[in-house]
Amino acid sequence: MVTIKDVAREAGVSVATVSRVLNGSGPVSELTGQRIREVAGRLRYVPHGGARSLITRKTQTLGVLLPDLYGEFFSEVIRGMDDTAQRHGFHLLISRAHADRHGIETAMRAMRGRVDGVVAMSPDLGADAPLDVPAALPVVLLCSAPRGDGADSLTIDNQGGSKAIVGHLIRLGHTRIAIIKGASRNYDAAERMRGYRVALRAAGITPDPSLATEGGFTEAGGYAAALELLKVKPRPTAIFAANDSMAIGALSALRESGVRVPEEMAVAGFDDIPLARYMDPPLSTVRVPTYELGARAVEMLLHCVRNGNDDARRRERVSTELVVRRSCGAGSARRTPSS
Amino acid sequence: MVTIKDVAREAGVSVATVSRVLNGSGPVSELTGQRIREVAGRLRYVPHGGARSLITRKTQTLGVLLPDLYGEFFSEVIRGMDDTAQRHGFHLLISRAHADRHGIETAMRAMRGRVDGVVAMSPDLGADAPLDVPAALPVVLLCSAPRGDGADSLTIDNQGGSKAIVGHLIRLGHTRIAIIKGASRNYDAAERMRGYRVALRAAGITPDPSLATEGGFTEAGGYAAALELLKVKPRPTAIFAANDSMAIGALSALRESGVRVPEEMAVAGFDDIPLARYMDPPLSTVRVPTYELGARAVEMLLHCVRNGNDDARRRERVSTELVVRRSCGAGSARRTPSS
DNA sequence: TTGTATGCGTTATCAT
DNA sequence: ATGATAACGCATACAA
Fold this sequence. Notes:
Two copies of one chain form a homodimer. Chain A is an alpha/beta fold and 339 residues long. Chain A has three domains: 4-56, lambda repressor-like DNA-binding domains (434 Repressor (Amino-terminal Domain), Orthogonal Bundle); 61-156 and 290-319, 3-Layer(aba) Sandwich (Rossmann fold), CATH 3.40.50.2300; 158-288 and 322-337, Rossmann fold (3-Layer(aba) Sandwich). Helices cover 41% and strands 15% of the residues of chain A. Chain A has eleven helices and twelve strands. Chain A has helices spanning 4-11, 15-23, 30-43, 49-56, 72-87, 101-110, 158-171, 187-202, 219-231, 244-256, 290-307, and strands at residues 61-66, 91-96, 117-121, 139-142, 152-156, 177-181, 212-214, 238-241, 266-268, 285-287, 315-318, 321-323. The first copy, chain A, starts with a helix and ends in a 16-residue tail after the last strand. The interface between A and B is large, with 55 and 55 residues. The structure holds a DNA duplex (16 and 16 nucleotides).
């Protein structure tokens, strides 16, 4: 491995001068600067990150803690994170961990000395007890219940999205609106459920417990939940699935049961994954700016990393957008996937 | 930050002893061992990775280079990688890079001193010139053209998969079988195209250039390509999309054009993403063991990292599996999503 | 403008 | 069984 010493020897200068040139710190003569850069390039010298971080106390790396889930949503979030991190000269150390407190804390400790901060996506994390991690470590909590202790948080406007789409269904005349929930310990799922109830009550409708089923955020769960809902008497006229995966499973179940969508049953999802518009019928849903979510989380973290972690905690929320397609029966005029 | 010195002082021993205890290297008395472990736990001491890697020349970290693409495929691959890496006590440093040679080489240099090896997924990488990276760095090339120089490679059996599904269409009586390709510079796409042609020729069918369109591996591309294919005279009776995303776009286009699937047009995809079975009709496709792909890549890399990078290059291939559902008209008896 | 010397946190070598 | 200390590669305060 070629070190700074090799470059120094080859260029006939001291290591200090090489360091100065490569970091732009301190004065150097034009001539030696050029020679050193030439040698460094020729030898393909790259500073050893570990050694550098030892003395600068910076790693130029951000940790990312993901829950034990998967799907298209995550690759989009990571995309937004990596783009933003790279633009600022940072790397991403990604790790999946159990979403509970212990898993998060363990993973964070394992990252000590390797990262300058952590974005932790842990929807199952309660807001109760403080997170037991090194105090100096900047942390941004993503899609988790905002908390008082030393962590910024970035969440989706789940309630707003739920209210928008359920409100839309109500305006279309539906009164028996079922919901396929995610796990209630999941923050996003709980908030979407809350928005659903709020929207119903605002319209003078009392939420019917028999119309609330759980689908675990998976296609299979949505499929099974829809079959359950078809047995409820009187049958609901609309189904709001708390994410698109479950909505797609539900569409499949309804199709196989001979229930026409949207004529006999309106269906709506949440997330607006790319495939949503290609469903039959195209899925009405709530758009979540997934890429921006990741990008913004990294921006918030970088702010903490650079300006110290001691100032006031930030709580931000990305807003959602109602996307009306045909599955809810609104009869949007356009039928092309560009809608 | 609590260092090994803090632990040593608190426990009344030297740093050397602490190091021995925590690494299980060298002899220590039962008593001091316990005391040190107790102190380390109480102080929440975690060794500084950078400092450690400086002397051990190991980082316990693997680099992952991803192409500038996204979708469900990648999160599954990462899942497999992270599971395997964690099981062996390794971290994952993930970075997206341009898929061309320069992007790969730049990204690999940026990882110097931070990783013990790299899994590079760069389907656009040609097999022509050798990769200009530090010779000692173990590299596993994923989904790229296998090459002679110092890198192991792991690929999907694209040709086998294509031959299987195209052969299936042929056995169903189709002779005019169109293909929606991916970009030809993409290794997977090129291999799937090759398998398609081989299968046709094996059945005595001459591939018709007017039946080959490109869809760029996206839903929108598949949608547009299907519309093009509907204009070809005489019209094809089957469409093989080189991935499921394009197949789903094609299904949508056919539906809106009033073309019944599979009666008037058989459709098949490639990948078997989770949503494939929830399409209408459920999508026949070729299953790619995505999770296993990531897991195996990391296993191969760890082998290089541990046994040195100098022995013979390995080339492995994961096999695919034909998944017959209803979109190709085979009329599989089962209609439930469990199929 | 450049060089020397020190220390970052850890492991490894050599004493004891 | 344990301690003192060198070394890893680098940045930087200080000297020249």
